[in-house]
Amino acid sequence: MSGQEDSFLRSLGFPSIQVHHSFDxxxxxxxxxxxxxxxxxGSGKTEFxxxxxxxxxxxxRKGTAVAVRTSTAGADRRVxxxxxxxxxxxxxxxxxxxALAYRGGYERCGDDISSAxxxxxxxxxxxxxxxxxxxxxDEAAFYxxxxxxxxxxxxxxxxxxxxxPTLVLNFRKEIFNHTARLLxxxxxxxxxxxxxxxxxxCIEDSLFTYRYYLSDGIECPALYFxxxxxxxxxxxxxxxxxxxxxxxxxxxxxxxGKEYTFFTLKPLGEAASRGDPKPLSAELxxxxxxxxxxxxxxxxxxxxxxxxxxxxxxxxxxRVPCIAEKALCYLYAEQNLLSADxxxxxxxxxxxxxxxxxxxxxxxxxxxxx
Length: 370
Hints:
Layout: H1 3-11, E1 34-38, H2 45-59, H3 64-70, E2 71-72, E3 75-85, E4 99-102, E5 105-108, E6 113-116, H4 119-128, E7 132-137, H5 146-158, E8 161-166, H6 178-186, E9 189-192, E10 195-196, E11 205-206, E12 208-215, E13 218-221, E14 244-248, H7 258-273, H8 278-289, H9 295-304, H10 323-334, H11 340-350, H12 354-363
Parallel strand pairs: 1-8, 1-9, 3-6, 3-7, 7-8
Antiparallel strand pairs: 2-3, 4-5, 10-11, 12-13, 12-14
Helix pairs in contact: 5-6, 10-12
């Protein structure tokens, strides 16, 4: 709080207190900002962007003196253009095509809304709108790494402002990917948002996105090696092959299988990459056919049932289907430890679900004909 604000509140009879601003009107006069709006799913990142859009409608009514302060190199920062991620076209299917949509509503953007799937498409969209000075790029972490430098160069050279509502942490509570890391490195401002933990018995602040599946009505936490990207909507899914998301505090964010991934699964993948795929195939066969014989089951049992601080909820991660397929996706799409031929051979030998695995590989930009 500034000294002027403090004096004003004292003149009204307020004691000396800390006053917090939850949201100021957006400043369109400052050129070159790269603003990250981060938080878990449901924390209001896109609604934050909608507020900026509404502020722009008011600011554009101002006169030429304001336009001088908000413009650089022919781009007026009061002109806002919203870019939705081309990866996820299934969210909010009931909204208009030109909607900047969030969970509580939407804003109609008319011609000031586009879609882009990578930094090259984004660059083309920007070239078509040289007058737009503020760019809201939804889910920027889903783009290729090049986007971080495209944004930095355009903001430095032309004074453009970028607002980037995006996940920075994935469901594993780790930096989402290289793009998210580069966006953090190049940001000038960061607005962190939180949400209530969505566990029924908790009201703590949540910073984390939690992925889980529903199997016979039971909440089953995603295993650590679950595919990093699974494209889908915001509706609740009863299909145990398709994930659900919510926000959870650290205490209620269950993430079984991390030790197993690095202690067992990844070393098995490394052995396969050196020409010895049999141990990996044997483990995946156990996971797919008789999970209680697998090293995965033994690891989870030791850590979550037989430990001094048992958390049996983690064992429910074994209830979902296609765990072996998920392990293969992790080793092939994320770790690059398996060749395409090895992947096809294991899928064929074990009779795994080709359709499911193909879909997950495509989600993670490693499409493969199985």
